[in-house]
Amino acid sequence: MSHVKAGGTAKNVHDSPGQRLGVKLYGGQKVKTGQVIVRQVGMTKRPGNGTKMSRNYTIHAAKDGIVQFSTRKFRSFSGKSIRRTEVTVK
Fold first, then answer.
1. C-alpha distances in angstroms, 19 versus 16, 34, 37, 81?
2. Which terminus of the chain has fewer Cβ atoms in its 10 Å neighbourhood, N or C?
């Protein structure tokens, strides 16, 4: 009997890598067409002039310029007015 018997199985030991979300370029920084400005889950920040949003809610620059962040009120689905950050390229 020189071996280990009846070892249990390990559960919940899988770990996935981080998604590298967040703001990649901040206000006042130069940006080129196609560069990623914000990677996010859901629409926490909204695209404005000079930006476009991809299918996974990533905000890209649609033209060369300087990144600007500002807060604006948006109308939600229920009709309530909510403040959201808007990303623009000037």
1. 9, 20, 15, 30
2. N
What is the token pair recorded at 57? 């809610």
Whether residue 4 lies inside any domain: the answer is no
Local mean pLDDT, 10-residue blocks, the chain (90 residues): 73 87 94 95 93 95 95 92 94
Contact 22, 39 (CB under 8 A): yes
What confidence score (pLDDT) does residue 1 get? 62
Exposure class string for 36-58: b at 16+ Cβ within 10 A, else e: ebbbbeeeebbbbebbebeeebb
Q: What is the CATH number of the domain that holds 31?
A: 2.40.50.100
Q: Range of 81's domain?
A: 22-89
Quote the pLDDT of residue 8: 75
Distance CA 90, CA 67 (A): 7
Q: How far apart are CA 81 and CA 72, in angstroms?
A: 10
